[in-house]
């Protein structure tokens, strides 16, 4: 039985200590913003923060992070106002979107340490794979978010439309008619 904090909430997982963090988050906590990509720690779709560091959650057994603080994309900024999220929208970055939560989490961890990373530093930190090849826009969005975080720029982009996470469980799909 493993205990740590997820998105500010103390959690006690009654799962095998060898269970990858990815599956504890997705299956036990229903935090599905963290994506399964390769299962080998190569693609980065499963990136979350553990004690502030970007990690590949498919490779981390929950038993190894006892007492840690985990942050997923759902809690980076619940209202989607984090500078990285805003820069992603402002730069029209997402295409298919599958890698985006992991990319955003990796970028946020980089920018917490360095608000003005060079292209080389961005390339070294952003080892996530984007199958759509949006790497030039990713670099621009990271640089823009860094300027916002340092106070040199403001982004006027509104948070993207969507369902409030609190209401998601109550949503009725448009194609399903109640009986």
UniProtKB/TrEMBL annotation:
InterPro entries: 2Fe-2S-bd, 2Fe-2S-bd_dom_sf, 2Fe-2S_ferredoxin-like_sf, 2Fe-2S_ferredoxin-type, 2Fe2S_fd_BS, Beta-grasp_dom_sf, Diverse_Oxidoreductases. The keyword Oxidoreductase applies. Signal peptide: none annotated. Residues 1-76 form the 2Fe-2S ferredoxin-type domain. It comes from the Bacteria. The keyword Hydrolase does not apply. Residues 153-179 are annotated as: Disordered. Keywords: 2Fe-2S, Iron, Iron-sulfur, Metal-binding, Oxidoreductase. One of its GO terms (molecular function) is metal ion binding. PANTHER family: BLR6218 PROTEIN, OXIDOREDUCTASE WITH IRON-SULFUR SUBUNIT. This is (2Fe-2S)-binding protein. It comes from Sphingomonas crocodyli.
């Amino acid at each position: 039985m493993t205990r740590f904090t997820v998105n500010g909430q103390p959690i006690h997982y009654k799962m095998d200590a060898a269970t990858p963090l990815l599956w504890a988050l997705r299956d036990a906590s229903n935090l599905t913003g963290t994506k399964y990509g390769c299962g080998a720690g190569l693609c980065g779709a499963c990136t979350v923060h553990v004690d502030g560091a970007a990690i590949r959650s498919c490779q981390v057994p929950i038993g190894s992070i006892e007492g840690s603080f985990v942050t997923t994309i759902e809690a980076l900024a619940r209202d989607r106002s984090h500078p990285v999220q805003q820069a992603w929208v402002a730069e029209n970055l997402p295409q298919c979107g599958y890698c985006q939560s992991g990319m955003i989490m990796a970028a946020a961890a980089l920018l917490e340490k360095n608000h003005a990373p060079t292209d080389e530093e961005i390339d070294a930190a952003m080892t996530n794979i984007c199958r759509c090849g949006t790497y030039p826009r990713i670099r621009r969005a990271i640089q823009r978010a860094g300027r916002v975080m340092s106070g040199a720029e403001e982004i006027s982009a509104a948070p993207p439309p969507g369902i409030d996470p609190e209401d998601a469980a109550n949503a009725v799909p448009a194609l399903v008619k109640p009986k």
